[in-house]
Recover the amino acids of this structure.
């Protein structure tokens, strides 16, 4: 090897040291990963938690039988909760409200924001179905008093009633209220409230674990080069770029 | 108008539902109940309109019928419908009682409470739910039986939920823990597997446990153990348990000390962990629990880490948009109120800035607004650094806006905040609070008729010895001026409250007094002196006392004309000791200064002086005696005749010369009182006056001189100094040295130092009563 190359290599090493980034090879990394012991039961619990929270009752039931993991909630309650969620998603808000009240009358009595959003969704559905008279009456009788109680409700109400002012609602500034995403938003709000009333966390743990993984990787990026997980779906380790 | 149509339509629907409630057919009735439930849940307006239609007694009647019918239901089908009717009617009543005080009253008036309670005892009499379920499972029971069990659970749950709603209101009947069977029932509720039932048990404790005896009984019955185990339960159980634990501990050091022992370290650390819980409400409740423990005695939770964690947690909870965020600031206040160390910690974690950021957001819910203002008031109550930070952030602009808020709670909180911030002597003297933007809204408050502002008065009065009062009369005068002397009629006490709350905005000793008097301010205050309410008398006296402090002769004269000697004398003998003290303090300021001021006390045959002397002989409170002695001491700076009158009060009127009150004061444990007494002796024997040597003889005969001599090594430096000066004076008669304490001409002798000291101490002593307790300390040790 010529002297030239030796000098170059030394320079590169010095530069690496100056950046003070530690390089961890795939072998080292995998060895470290293997040292971390995670119990299978804990992994199963995470999966079960996800299925229960998201309301996949059949999958949860199957998973329970196959893995022997007990859900931390009565699976029957998931069915009720999913029925409420589905009713909102289909636009049957009144039906959803009745179901929630049967499940637990405290939920809507103690959660004014959720109650307002459900009533708002009812108004949106009336407008969607072209029932203008009924929509106006409903807005006056049911929603206006809520707006008086709370400034932010009033603003939302005004936005919603604005739908009536446009000929072509699909193409107006408040048209997003008619989107299916608005229904989904309301549905997930109800879902979360029911879960909370059942002393269950309203969000599954798995997504927040993934968020923590990304955060930790970003932190680590500043200090070291290591095999990173870039594709969360496959979780393949990618060789560090040196 | 469309609104009328809409509500008319609503009424028709309502009447229709009510009509169907009375139907003989159970199915129709059940359907109507469900409909009613779905109408009112979450909807205050509907609750109110159905309440007016008389829905509550109707539903209570249905529940009552159904409860009696359930025992005689002949077949399963009937049984099921009856139970459904019970569940639905209980839910309706519970919803009426949820967050709606008029609803709670209606439910209670309709006699539904005992029937709802009967639903709970289904557990006890008919089915032991806990055992029952287990037995069924063990036997591999039939599905129908399980369903039956479930339907009973539904009944119990419905009853428990509704009762829980009622118990969240102050109107709920008080639960009597003193009866043994009630305590047993409570424990059975807490032990119940249903979280609604155990939650109800906890709600009952939070609602009804008020006295320290009840707290102790609950503790001794083992309730705390049960609550502690519920901390490991569901979210609802955990929150309910934390709330009850805080109730049992609140203001009860005895119970707390029993709890905080080596065995309960785990419970305590469990609560500490819950301060970091995922749920905001749990974090708040756990913090409240720790706050009551800490407030029970400063020796608990001394760890700075925990203290800081609590403060940070509560400040973070302010971000919660809901009720938790509203309540967090109140919890924060109770954590830091009156505790300088906590206030300092809160300051170090930028508490002022964080509170200010919330205040800045605008359009706050009144409850939240009030809480944040109170939190700021507490942070600024003692520490100058907090006040300066507030001023540099210009927090006051927002606070002043709040003075005109619609909610009276917000207005009074703003008053308190202003009061705390304006305690800053530095900024008072710099005139930082002298501007129209502050004055105008304050003036409006003078006409405030709300009871909440009256409440401020109550607080003001209860704190009156802690916080600086109206040094600041100029300010009040300005307010009166601007309001065109609008203090009148029944709103008078309230106006005084506003005056009290705002009175330390400006330090202005000399000007504006005459304006105030000219506008009849003194007349109004004198009117208040005749009030039946001792707190109002106290307040008005305080104001006058400050008005008179270091006032010019003309000003004093006008005030005295209004006051009259007889009124002052009767106030000195007021049944309320605090009024007596203020009246004496007022007289002390009245006779302070030039010799003609002293004359006031001799008006109407010396009626005031007699009252002072009498009070000194019978008073039991050191504060009264101190003020009284300073009155005499000030009078003794006057002419020969004045000094002799003081001698008479001290010696002649004493039943037994050996028991002259001054001897008692010289022997007092209170160094302030000893100081005042020695001052009197000093002024009486001041050798510049011709009769001094005669008085010295009299004092010696009464044994007073020897007492003073014995005090030469008094532990209190202030007393010691005074005593040495007095002894110097005593000997000066032999040396024929003429010392004149008050003559500036005598500035080259050793008494001049004491003269200076005298003036300093007296002036500062006066000020200390009106400015700040901390400076009072400083004055005492000066």
């Amino acid at each position: 090897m010529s002297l030239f190359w030796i000098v170059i290599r030394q320079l590169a090493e010095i530069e690496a040291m100056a950046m003070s980034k530690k390089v961890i090879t795939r072998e080292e990394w995998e060895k470290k990963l293997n040292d971390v012991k995670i119990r299978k039961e804990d992994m199963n619990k995470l999966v079960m938690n996800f299925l229960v929270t998201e309301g996949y009752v059949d999958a949860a039931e199957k998973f329970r039988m196959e893995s022997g993991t007990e859900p931390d909630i009565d699976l029957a309650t998931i069915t009720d909760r999913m029925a409420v969620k589905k009713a909102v998603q289909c636009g049957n808000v009144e039906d959803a409200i009745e179901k929630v009240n049967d499940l637990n009358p405290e939920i809507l009595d103690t959660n004014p924001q959720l109650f307002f959003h459900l009533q708002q969704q009812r108004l949106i559905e009336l407008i969607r179905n072209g029932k203008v008279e009924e929509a106006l009456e409903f807005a006056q009788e049911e929603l206006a008093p809520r707006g008086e109680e709370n400034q932010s409700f009033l603003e939302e109400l005004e936005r919603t009633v604005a739908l009536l002012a446009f000929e072509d609602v699909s193409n107006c500034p408040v048209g997003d209220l008619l989107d299916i995403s608005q229904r989904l938003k309301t549905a997930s709000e109800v879902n979360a409230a029911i879960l909370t009333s059942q002393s269950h966390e309203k969000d599954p743990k798995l997504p927040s674990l993934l968020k923590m993984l990304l955060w930790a990787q970003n932190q680590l990026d500043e200090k070291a080069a290591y095999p990173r997980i870039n594709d969360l779906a496959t979780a393949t380790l990618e060789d560090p770029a040196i | 108008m469309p609104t009328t149509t809409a509500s008319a339509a609503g009424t028709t629907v309502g009447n229709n539902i009510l009509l169907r409630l009375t139907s003989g057919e159970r199915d129709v009735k059940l359907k109507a109940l469900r409909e009613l439930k779905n109408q009112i849940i979450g909807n205050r307006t509907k609750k109110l309109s159905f309440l007016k239609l008389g829905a509550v007694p109707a539903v209570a009647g249905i529940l009552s019928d159904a409860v009696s019918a359930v025992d005689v239901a002949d077949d399963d089908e009937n049984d099921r419908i009856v139970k459904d009717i019970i569940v639905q009617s209980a839910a309706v009543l519970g919803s009426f009682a949820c967050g709606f005080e008029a609803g709670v009253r209606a439910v209670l008036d309709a006699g539904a409470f005992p029937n709802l309670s009967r639903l709970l005892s289904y557990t006890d009499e008919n089915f032991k739910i806990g055992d029952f379920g287990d037995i069924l499972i063990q036997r591999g029971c039939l599905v129908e039986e399980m369903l039956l069990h479930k339907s009973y659970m539904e009944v119990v749950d419905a009853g428990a939920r509704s009762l829980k709603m009622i118990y969240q209101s102050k109107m709920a009947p008080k639960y009597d823990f003193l009866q043994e069977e009630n305590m047993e029932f409570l424990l059975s509720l807490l032990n119940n597997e249903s979280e609604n039932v155990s939650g109800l048990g906890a709600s009952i404790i939070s609602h009804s446990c008020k006295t320290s005896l009840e707290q102790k009984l609950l503790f001794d019955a083992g309730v705390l153990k049960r609550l502690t185990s519920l901390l490991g339960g569901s979210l609802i159980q955990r929150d309910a348990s934390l709330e009850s634990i805080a109730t049992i501990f609140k203001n009860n050091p005895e119970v707390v000390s029993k709890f905080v022992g080596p065995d309960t370290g785990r419970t305590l650390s469990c609560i500490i962990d819950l301060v970091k819980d995922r749920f905001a409400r749990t974090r708040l409740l756990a913090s409240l629990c720790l706050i009551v423990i800490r407030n029970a005695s400063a020796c608990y939770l001394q760890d700075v880490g925990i203290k800081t964690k609590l403060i940070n947690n509560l400040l973070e909870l302010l971000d919660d948009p809901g009720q938790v965020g509203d309540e967090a600031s109140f919890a924060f206040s109770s954590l830091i109120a009156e505790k300088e160390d906590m206030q300092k910690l809160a300051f170090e974690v930028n508490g002022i800035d964080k509170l200010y950021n919330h205040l800045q957001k605008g359009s706050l819910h009144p409850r939240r607004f009030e809480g944040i203002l109170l939190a700021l008031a507490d942070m600024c109550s003692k520490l100058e650094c907090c006040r300066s930070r507030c001023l540099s952030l210009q927090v006051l602009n927002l606070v002043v806006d709040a003075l005109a808020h619609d909610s009276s709670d917000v207005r009074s909180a703003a008053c308190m905040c202003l009061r705390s911030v304006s305690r800053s002597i530095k900024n008072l003297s710099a005139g930082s609070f002298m501007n129209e933007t502050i004055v105008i809204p304050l003036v409006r408050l003078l006409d405030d008729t709300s009871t909440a502002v009256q409440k401020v008065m109550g607080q003001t009065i209860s704190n009156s010895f802690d916080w600086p009062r109206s040094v600041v009369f100029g300010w009040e005068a300005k307010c009166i001026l601007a309001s065109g002397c609008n203090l009148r009629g029944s709103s008078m006490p309230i106006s005084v409250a506003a005056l009290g709350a705002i009175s330390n905005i400006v330090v202005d000793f000399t000007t504006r007094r005459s304006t105030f008097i000219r506008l009849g301010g003194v007349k109004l205050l004198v009117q208040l002196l005749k009030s039946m309410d001792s707190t109002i008398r106290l307040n008005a006296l305080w104001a006058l006392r400050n008005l008179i402090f270091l006032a010019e002769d003309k000003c004093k004269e006008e005030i005295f004309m209004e006051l009259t000697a007889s009124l002052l004398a009767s106030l000195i003998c007021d049944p309320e000791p605090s009024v007596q003290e203020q009246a004496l303090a007022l007289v002390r300021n009245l006779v302070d200064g030039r010799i003609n001021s002293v004359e006031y006390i001799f008006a109407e045959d010396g009626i005031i002086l007699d009252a002072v002397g009498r009070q000194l002989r019978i008073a039991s409170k050191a504060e009264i005696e101190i003020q009284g002695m300073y009155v005499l001491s000030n009078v003794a700076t006057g002419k020969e005749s004045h000094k002799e009158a003081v001698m008479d009060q001290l010696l002649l009127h004493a039943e037994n010369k050996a028991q002259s009150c001054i001897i008692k004061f010289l022997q007092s444990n209170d160094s302030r009182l000893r100081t005042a007494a020695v001052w009197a002796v000093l002024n009486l024997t001041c050798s510049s006056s011709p009769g001094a040597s005669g008085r010295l003889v009299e004092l010696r005969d009464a044994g007073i001189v020897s007492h003073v001599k014995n005090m030469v090594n008094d532990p209190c430096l202030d007393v010691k100094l005074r005593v040495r000066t007095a002894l110097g004076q005593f000997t000066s008669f032999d040396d024929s040295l003429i010392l004149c304490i008050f003559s500036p001409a005598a500035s080259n002798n050793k008494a001049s130092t004491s003269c200076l000291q005298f003036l300093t101490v007296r002036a500062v002593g006066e000020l200390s009563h009106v400015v700040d307790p901390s400076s009072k300390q400083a004055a005492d040790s000066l």
Chain B has a mean pLDDT of 76. Chain B touches chain A at residues 2-3, 5-7, 9-10, 34, 37-38, 41-45, 91, 94-95, 98-99, 161, 165, 195, 234-237, 278, 322, 363 (CB under 8 Å). Residues 564-780 of chain B form a domain with the Leucine-rich Repeat Variant fold (CATH 1.25.10.10).
